[in-house]
Design brief:
It contains 18 helices and 20 strands. The protein is mainly alpha-helical and 521 residues long. The strands form 9 sheets. Strands 5-6-7 form a 3-stranded antiparallel β-sheet. The longest helix is centred in the N-terminal third of the chain and has 25 residues.
């Protein structure tokens, strides 16, 4: 049964008020304290090995090539599988530094954080002739700048007084204004690609993904709230509403679509690449902004996923029109799903799926990009592991919800594998083939933004004490604050009492889980 333990709702409550259970957990994990401290320091060393090599060999370019100790200006390559229309004069935007800002704060290095903030304030500019993927630039650059601005201006006084005057917010606003040009379509769904200097290029493709046009609301919404300019959130919300209106009668969506016509291109979808963060941003937008519309979308979408995609602990893909299975495969991006399930209290399902992902990790030493469930074999061409964070992310969420020390052991295993198979003298390298452990010359920025961050938080969550954060799909923390809620839902209790908030949230969670249980019966 889904309701055997009210503990299944712990993390959702902790998101809103992490102090409510502090006394209950005060004597937990005492014998694990030494191990957690030891593992925390291992992760700290991992982060700085990656960061220092980037700063030495790649900065101010985008990402590090750790095998050759050189760099790649990769912002224009993200999502660009065929490496088309690459710019000639683009020399990087310090992408990895932007992605590392919140991680530096979480690791307690305010000195380096301030140095990085001031460098970016004086040197970063977006008036460059570079064609970029809207989704990737949004979650990595815009999200990184906004999160760092919020950390720079909160009550902890991390920066020297007078050193910061909202420079990162001004950069974020400039970038957001460039994004707005992508939304000029008949449907309101944004183009997947824009040129930062010139906007949408002539003959630009009109194909995009569900994630690409449905995962903009957190960053664009926060930008509107910080600047007072409603255009950013309005554009993202219009796109999200249009996308939701295109769902099938089963409340399923496809993977790719045409932004000009509003027609689906690929009808098969799942919870992995091309769709994943769409689900994630519905629930997180609800927590961050308090709009019941996001909850209603998520509620319907989650029930449909559990009904049509789930097969035991696994999730296959299905046709959005019929609900019939199409592809039986595990993809590494699916490993975020248990973390999302923890947010809504479905910890039993989260634990079940997480254990299966970890079994695959144990089999290969890392998590392959694609594994064919129906044949119990690796995909013949997608055998790589690019230092992805999703399994570490879900491990962190499940440990926060359960305090089960087994998840500490999972984290220890992940750290051991990363150091054994991917650490090189010049940083951390991606794995080209998980069977041979052949390396690829690329250290992705998300290794510092997410992988190291979630592992560090697994072993040391002191950053979260007395704080409420939502992490974006790129691992950038946004504070949960009532002043960002457009309005409190009509059913919200008038009292400011934390317990009243918890009861109200539990009612919603239990209603969702009951619907899932009935749908799978």
């Amino acid at each position: 049964m889904l309701f055997r333990n009210i503990g299944t709702c712990f993390l959702l409550i902790l998101l809103i008020s992490p102090t409510i259970f502090s006394s209950a957990f005060s004597n937990v994990d005492i014998r694990w304290a030494a191990k957690k401290r030891h593992m925390r320091e291992k992760v700290r060393k991992m982060f700085y090995h990656a960061y220092d090599n980037y700063m030495t060999h790649a900065f101010p370019h985008d990402e590090l090539k750790p095998l050759t100790k050189t760099f790649t200006d990769s912002l224009s390559e993200l999502g660009n599988l065929n490496l088309e229309h690459l710019p000639q004069d683009y020399n990087g935007s310090a992408l990895t530094l932007v992605e590392s800002l919140s991680s530096l704060v979480i690791l307690g290095n305010n000195t380096e954080f301030e140095r990085a903030v001031l460098w970016l304030s004086e040197n970063l500019a977006f008036d460059v002739d570079a064609r970029v993927n809207l989704f990737e630039c949004n979650i990595r650059v815009l999200g990184g700048l906004l999160s760092a601005h919020l950390l720079a201006t909160d009550s902890t006084s991390r920066l020297v007084k007078g050193a910061y005057s909202n420079q990162l917010l001004l950069l974020a606003e400039d970038l957001g204004q460039r994004f707005l040009r992508a939304f000029g379509t008949p449907t309101g769904l944004p183009y997947a690609w824009i040129n930062l200097k010139y906007g949408v290029m002539e003959n630009e493709t009109t194909e995009t993904s569900t994630s690409g046009c449905g995962s903009l609301i957190l960053e664009m919404g926060v930008l509107s709230r910080l600047t007072g300019d409603p255009r950013f959130e309005s554009a993202a919300l219009r796109a999200l509403r249009k996308l939701w209106s295109m769902r099938s009668s089963l409340n399923l969506l496809g993977t790719t679509l045409d932004v000009a016509t509003g027609d689906w291109i690929e009808f098969s979808s799942g919870i992995g690449a091309g769709v994943d963060s769409f689900y994630e941003y519905l629930i997180k937008a609800y927590v961050l902004f308090g709009n019941d519309e996001f909850w209603r979308m998520f509620h319907a979408a989650y029930i449909a996923v559990q009904k049509y995609f789930r097969h035991g602990p696994w999730y296959h893909e299905a046709d959005m029109r019929t609900g019939k299975a199409t592809y039986w495969q595990l993809t590494s991006l699916q490993a975020f799903w248990p973390g999302l399930q923890v947010l809504v209290g479905d910890v039993a399902s989260a634990n079940s799926s997480h254990r299966e992902f970890f079994h695959v990790w144990e089999r290969f030493g890392v998590l392959p990009e694609r594994y064919l469930l129906d044949h119990q074999m690796l995909h013949p061409t997608e055998k790589y592991y690019p230092l992805r964070p999703e399994l570490a992310e879900s491990t962190f969420y499940l440990y926060q919800a359960t305090k089960d020390p087994w998840y500490i052991e999972v984290g220890q295993s992940i750290v051991k594998s990363l150091n054994l198979y991917t650490k090189v003298e010049g940083g951390f390298a991606s794995i080209k083939d998980v069977t041979t452990k052949q390396l690829e010359d690329h250290q992705h920025s998300f290794f510092l933004a997410e992988t190291c961050k979630y592992l560090y938080l697994l072993f040391d969550d002191s950053f979260l004490v007395d704080q409420n954060y939502i992490f974006t799909t790129e691992g950038h923390p946004f504070p949960v604050t009532s002043r960002w809620h457009e309005r409190l839902p009509e059913s919200y209790p008038p009292s400011n009492c934390t317990f009243a908030k918890v009861v109200w949230l539990l009612e919603k969670v239990f209603a969702l889980l009951l619907s899932v249980q009935r749908g799978s019966a």
